């Protein structure tokens, strides 16, 4: 005899702060019941929880309510829900830290003020936030000569396979005569490791202003070393997709994202010094759009330099945006990079510029070629 709906359970996979949780709920239970179980494991109050990827069976645009039955959710065995929210204890600790910071700022010395000014002016200082170990280990020199000669045919074959099989998600049509800006997400546009109640708290300052100004001279593509699902979720969370796809009535920001590319477009290459490395080969884009994008008119921003190992002359290593709650008031990276992109917009061959010296270029107003 078939089981009634009231007896059937559904396992729901939830990911939060590098932790994975599995919750078994009856189909007759509700989203609020799920939130209560999440609270028991994370101490995030139900009204502070944001569940990304949770959708209705009947509509992908209508968000489920707390009263929505589990049976009415569009869930499969592979569905993964990303949880955003801050535990109540952490909020209380953060409020205490903020009060302490306010007191400290009023007593700060001139020396300390100069250090803060250095951060504001783009001088790199040690960052001891979560994920710092990953950044310290990013010592790979962006140099194709790191790849042994006997491995280079293998690399070319891997790129060709990506060209033959990989399909980017195309959102808007490319524009003739525009250069191409390829952007990473995690630590470049978004602090993906910190916990918060809203995406705005984790968004890098001046993101929408940066994209609006850049779009005047560049087509913009997103390439992240994660899955397409998480790219879409993060772009929705940050409000980028709504602006790009004209799903907002606001006219303050105007830009379009041309494509999303995920980890499926990356390849692994063997280097002499660092062994196997996952990289983002720009030829996958150039050979897909040979009449639009080339080595001469493309620039890629990423916080991990090994990602442009195969195309080092087109890569600019951006400072990672971490500890968003504490750094978003001083981070000016996107604001300054907007100036740089405007400066080089009419430069004929971007691969000739030494992008490592981008700050020096905007300070002196002169182009510096790589040697």
Automatic annotation (TrEMBL):
Stored SMART domains: CPDc
Gene Ontology cellular component list: nucleus
FCP1 homology domain mapped to chain residues: 174-344
InterPro entries linked: FCP1_dom, HAD-like_sf, HAD-SF_hydro_IIID, HAD_sf, Ubiquitin-like_domsf, UBLCP1
Main subcellular location: nucleus
The protein's name: FCP1 homology domain-containing protein
Subcellular location field: Nucleus
Gene Ontology process terms (BP): regulation of proteasome assembly
Region (Disordered) residue spans: 120-145
Top-level lineage group: Eukaryota
UniProt keyword annotations, A-Z: Hydrolase, Nucleus
GO-annotated molecular function: protein serine/threonine phosphatase activity
């Amino acid at each position: 005899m078939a089981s009634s709906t009231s007896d059937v359970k559904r396992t729901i996979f939830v990911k939060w702060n590098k932790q994975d949780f599995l919750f078994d709920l009856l189909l007759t239970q509700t989203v609020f019941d799920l939130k209560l179980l999440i609270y028991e494991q994370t101490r995030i109050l139900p009204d502070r929880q944001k569940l990304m990827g949770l959708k209705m069976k009947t509509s992908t645009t209508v968000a489920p309510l707390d009263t929505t039955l589990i049976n009415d959710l569009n869930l499969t065995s592979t569905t993964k829900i990303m949880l955003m929210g801050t535990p109540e204890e952490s909020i209380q600790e953060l409020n205490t830290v903020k009060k302490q910071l306010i007191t400290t700022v009023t007593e700060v010395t001139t020396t300390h003020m100069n250090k803060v000014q250095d951060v504001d002016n783009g001088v790199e200082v040690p960052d001891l936030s979560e994920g710092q170990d990953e950044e310290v280990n990013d010592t790979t020199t962006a140099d194709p000569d790191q790849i042994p000669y006997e491995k280079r045919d293998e690399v070319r074959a891997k790129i060709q396979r990506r060209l033959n099989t990989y399909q980017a998600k195309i959102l808007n049509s490319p524009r003739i005569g525009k250069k191409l800006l390829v952007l990473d997400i995690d630590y470049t546009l978004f602090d993906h490791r910190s916990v918060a109640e809203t995406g705005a708290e984790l968004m890098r300052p001046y993101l929408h202003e940066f994209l609006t100004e850049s779009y005047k001279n560049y087509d913009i593509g997103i390439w992240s070393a994660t899955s397409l699902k998480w790219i879409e979720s993060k772009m929705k969370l940050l409000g980028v997709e709504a602006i790009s796809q004209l799903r907002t009535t606001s006219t303050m920001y105007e830009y379009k994202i041309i494509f999303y590319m995920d980890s499926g477009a990356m390849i692994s290459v063997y280097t002499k010094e660092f062994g196997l490395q996952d990289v983002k080969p720009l030829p996958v884009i150039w050979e897909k759009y040979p009449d639009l994008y080339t080595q001469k008119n493309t620039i890629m921003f990423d916080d991990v330099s090994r990602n442009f190992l195969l195309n080092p002359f087109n890569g600019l290593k951006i400072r990672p945006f971490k500890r968003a709650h504490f750094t978003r008031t001083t981070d000016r990276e996107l604001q300054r990079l907007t100036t740089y992109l405007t400066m080089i917009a009419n430069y004929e061959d971007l691969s000739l510029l030494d992008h490592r010296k981008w700050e020096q270029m905007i300070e002196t107003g002169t182009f510096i070629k790589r040697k």
